[in-house]
Each structure stands twice: as structure tokens, then as C-alpha cells.
Amino acid sequence: MHSSERIGKLYIVATPIGNLEDITFRALKVLKEVDLIACEDTRRTIKLLNYYKIPVKKLVPYHEHNERKVSKKLIKELLSGKDIALVSDAGTPCISDPGYRIVSLAREKKIDVIPIPGASAVIAALSASGFPTDRFLFVGFLPKKELQLKKTIKEISKLPYTVVAYESPHRLEKTLKILKEMIPEKKIGIYREITKLNEEFLEGNPGKLLNELTLEDKLKGEFVLLFYPSKEEKENENEKSLDEILLQLKEEGNSLKTTVKEACQRTGLPKNEVYKRALELFSRD
């Protein structure tokens, strides 16, 4: 891919999060053809390259401790015509992994940044959890400091959509104890070791999950936490949305019958529920 008469391209390459076979043909092609591979841990990347018999080229360590310094050097390489692949230890770079700085700089320099999509622990966990996926919020790793963690838990526990977070194995027990204290009845899912040999999905309230993980010595590996939407907040959101639709239809001069019919079509809510709410709003005049 190298040419001295062109600006190089930066490829953001997703790599397996566990099972080494979870990688695309396109990703392998890019890794074979680029001039440099910027990687979070050279040992992890060498293992992947060896598995697919890809010659180990010049690997450049690129991690949270050297990101600022190395980004500038890599930009110079790109401007000189070299193509670079950015990989993290597992999954998609920039998603709770290093990468933001070099991508930002590359965009500033008008360098092409090309995503090579693939494995992502967030999407994998969501897709197989059975939790609502029409809307979700990914918050990355939960805060380390207890005060900030409690503040975050309070915020996300009330949200009307699924919240996804990462947690490290050495902090999970403490986090579950705090969850048990703050939101003891909250439905939570824990996906551990996704795509690996001991892959497992656990579901229940914080107390149940804490007992299961500690008693069976499962506080090891990689964890994705999923918080089920708050039913109360979900209902409040639906009610607010319904009210807005009903008031809009009313202000447009529609009759009660037409308003109810149109609101049912837009929201998918039962006719008797919509009619009852519409009556309350129409009777205010």
C-alpha cells in the first residue's frame, strides 16, 4: 500500500474479543497489506497475526500511556504515504480503548480514516441479552471512585432504556454490593467472557448475582453489565409522549374520535388507554 506520492490511510480495525475466528476477511486483508500496525499490546497482536499466518511487520505500541506522543509520530508516517492499521487488544478501537487522539488528528489533517467493523462486546452482549435494544446507552467503564460510582448508578437506574457498562473483575464484587444497597430490586444482566470458553449470561437482581458469582468463584474474566430499563420512567416517558401527541392533534382542531384514532396509530397504545387520557385532556377546556 505504500507510496511516496500519496497520503496514507488510517484503518480502524476491529479484532476478536475472545474467539480468534471472530474477524472479517476484510480485516485480515488490511492487516496483511498495511505498512504499520499500531496496537495496544504487541503480544496480543502478534498472537492474532501468527494465528492467521500474517507476517509480523513493524508493530508500534499505541496505548493510553503513550497515545499523545505516538499519535503525532503516526500522523507523520501517514502524511509520508504509509498506511496504518489501528487495533486494540480486543474489539473495536476507540470504544473504551485508545484511538480517539489519532483519529481526531487524522481528521484534522484530512487523512482518510476507514472503519473495518467487527467484534464489539457492547453489541454482542446486547444482541443476546433479551433486554430492550430499540434504545440503549453505553457508559463505558463504571467509575472507580465510590462517590462517583453511586452518582452514576443513581442516574442510570432511572433511565427508560437499557444501559450497558463495562466493569473489571477486581471491582465487580464491590460494585454489586453497592448496587444491592442502592437498587436491590433492579433487573441486571451480566455477560462474562463473551465468545470465550466459559462464556455465560447471568440475570437477576444485584443480590442474586453477587451470591452466584462469589459462591461459584466466577469473579474472573471480562464483564459487561446491562441495566434493564426502569418501568416507572418508561411509563412516564410514554405518557409524556402520548400527551404531546394528543395535545398537538387537539390544537389542530381534530375531534376527540379522530384524535384517539390517530394517537393509537402513532403510539401503538391500546385504544381504551388513549381514549381515557384524551378525555382527561379534552375536559380541561
UniProtKB/TrEMBL annotation:
Record-level GO cellular component terms: cytoplasm
Residues covered by the RsmI HTH domain: 241-281
Top-rank taxon: Bacteria
Domain Tetrapyrrole methylase: 9-205
Major subcellular site: cytoplasm
Subcellular location: Cytoplasm
Catalysis performed (reactions): cytidine(1402) in 16S rRNA + S-adenosyl-L-methionine = 2'-O-methylcytidine(1402) in 16S rRNA + S-adenosyl-L-homocysteine + H(+)
GO MF, one annotated term: rRNA (cytosine-2'-O-)-methyltransferase activity
UniProt keyword Transcription present: no
PROSITE patterns: RSMI
InterPro entries: 4pyrrol_Mease, 4pyrrol_Methylase_sf, 4pyrrole_Mease_sub1, 4pyrrole_Mease_sub2, rRNA_ssu_MeTfrase_I, RsmI_HTH, SAM_MeTrfase_RsmI_CS
One Pfam family here: RsmI_C
UniProt-listed Enzyme Commission number(s): 2.1.1.198
Keywords attached to this entry: Cytoplasm, Methyltransferase, rRNA processing, S-adenosyl-L-methionine, Transferase
Record's function text: Catalyzes the 2'-O-methylation of the ribose of cytidine 1402 (C1402) in 16S rRNA.
Membership in a protein family: Belongs to the methyltransferase superfamily. RsmI family.
UniProt protein name: Ribosomal RNA small subunit methyltransferase I
Organism of derivation: Desulfurobacterium thermolithotrophum (strain DSM 11699 / BSA)
Gene designation per UniProt: rsmI
